Amino acid sequence: MGYLERFARKRRNRTETLTARVDPDTYKRFKEHCDRLGLTVSEGVALLVEKEVGSDPVTNVHTYVPTEPAGNTNVHTSVRTEHESIRRYTPPPQGKYGGKRKLSPDGRKEWCSLCQDWRSAAHFGRHCRDVHNMTPDQVREKDSETT
């Protein structure tokens, strides 16, 4: 007598759905087995699942008994007792790391120390290259040397 035969035609109210994928041959054999017992495939699967994870803890305990002694028995025993500080981003204080650029109050123009004039920030690189034959960083360096 198989396991499922003991439960032939016991019905309970089931509300959850379980989906399992098996190969066609296994499904056919399992369906024929359930048909012989008068069970649906769903009932057979439900009974097998219930047996595996059922409420009887003694029958569902699987104990592993090693046949060979464990090779590595070193245990890491050091325990951290202090928490590492969490680094969070904090913006730099005002005035520090202000950047190389001196912008006008509206933020749209940059100061050219060689021309002593405000130039469009979007075209400042072109101005430096065409008028002064320098890069914007070189112009800013000259400005920082003079101030």
Residues in helices, as a percent range: 25-40%
User: Count the helices. How many?
Assistant: 4
* Structural class label: mainly alpha
Q: Major beta sheet, specifics?
A: 2 strands, antiparallel
Poorly predicted segments: 57-61
**Spatial strand sequence of the major β-sheet:** 1-2
What would the principal axes of the Cα set say about the shape?
A: elongated
Task: State Rg.
Answer: 39 Å
Q: Tell me the number of strands.
A: 2
The span between the termini is 99 Å
Report mean pLDDT, rounded to a whole number.
73
> What fraction of residues sit in β-strands?
5-15%
Region (Disordered): 59-106
Q: Could you describe the 3D structure shown?
A:
32% of the residues lie in helices and 5% in strands. It is mainly α. Among the domains are: 19-56; 109-146, no CATH class. The protein has a two-stranded antiparallel sheet. The longest helix has 14 residues, at 24-37.
Give the secondary structure arrangement, pairings included.
Layout: H1 24-37, H2 41-53, E1 109-112, E2 117-120, H3 124-132, H4 136-146
Antiparallel strand pairs: 1-2
